[in-house]
Amino acid sequence: MPLALLALAIGAFGIGTTEFVIMGVLPEVAGDFGVSIPTAGWLVSGYALGVVFGAPLLTVLGTKVSRKKMLMFLMGVFVVGNTLSALAPVFGVMLIGRVIASLAHGAFFGIGSVVAADLVAPEKKASAISLMFTGLTVANIVGVPLGTYVGQAAGWRVTFAGVAALGIVGLLGVARLVPESGRPESHTIRTEFAAFRNVQVWLAMAMTVLGYGGVFAAITYITPMMTEVAGYSAGAVTWLLVLFGIGMFLGNLVGGRFADRALMPMLFTALGALSAALLLFTATAHDKVLAAVTLTVIGALGFATVPPLQKWVLDQASAAPTLASAANIGAFNLGNALAAWLGGVVISAGLGYTSPSWIGALLSGTALLLSFLAAFLDRRTRPAGRVVTAPAAAEHTPAAARH
């Protein structure tokens, strides 16, 4: 494994911790600021929307500098945002801090995906992307549960101060380990935007919005769901998040490995099973053991979609992948924002804490239908003899020639 992938995983660990830890401390934050749980949910939605807008904006602004310098800058923005969140005197200021931190998220993973894919042979690109995202999944095994525990024991402000420190470590890791590669191949904004003429890029982003949005519909309000419905104590949420993180970790690795072999079949399987698991969660959430098992399965299936979706975008936008890759990361978080908002709506309507899982199943099921459409269009338009699962082999220049 190239050491640069380790640096990207370190940055991903910090970003993953701040993205997901808010769910574990949401009741504490809401209580301190005197707002309702659905209102506090805007700290999730606001972060996600910041990723949506920040991903393309900062990626475009970074087209004239090396990818390494841009990654370092993004980690600096991340540190500033989390520091502001930790020191926020009122809810509005914390929301601003969350948005600032989120601006770095999409561009970091978007640019990082391109760097990761270019560091390895064409047939290993999805696996390399999954290795970078391993930092995000490990954050859910270690960073998020630890942050939740610290937040409940010492206060959520200590948690976000710790996240800011993680960002500093990530910045130093990028500075030390990622090679200086020069500017990206595409020097004009027009060239980067040309990738969006491909309908497959838009289909991939729609699948991302709906598929991963289904996961967030269930887990945004996981703390009140597990305490009020399943009957767990607040302290047990930490270990439930560990299980969710383990599921994400395993699903990410499996998704990356099988996406290199059979991308669309992997996507069909993950999205179909995810939709079924979310439907099942509405029933299993009433039992402690079954709720824990289902939560782990949802984490695995949800993150099994990430490497194939990200690789699909890189393959379809191979001439100018940086902006398309970042935009797809934004799409993940647009789905997060949509799901968090819809989950808050159904809870506020009095439908109960399990009702967001119905929303999640609907979103993921729609993504499955779109994946069938994408595969159908690809079969109709690809040249005879082209291999679907590894199109990048003929389209990308060798890694050694670029990094």
Automatic annotation (TrEMBL):
Any Pfam family matching the protein: MFS_1
Topological category with respect to the lipid bilayer: Multi-pass membrane protein
Cell compartment(s), UniProt: Cell membrane
InterPro entries (UniProt xref): MFS (IPR011701), MFS_dom (IPR020846), MFS_Efflux_Transporters (IPR050189), MFS_trans_sf (IPR036259)
Keywords from the named record: Cell membrane, Membrane, Transmembrane, Transmembrane helix
Transmembrane spans: 42-61, 73-96, 102-121, 128-150, 156-178, 199-223, 229-250, 262-283, 289-309, 330-351, 357-377
Superkingdom of the organism of origin: Bacteria
Main location: membrane
Domain Major facilitator superfamily (MFS) profile: residue ranges: 4-382
Gene3D superfamilies (UniProt xref): MFS general substrate transporter like domains
Protein name (Swiss-Prot/TrEMBL): MFS transporter
Species for this entry: Streptomyces cylindrosporus
Taxonomic classification: Bacteria, Bacillati, Actinomycetota, Actinomycetes, Kitasatosporales
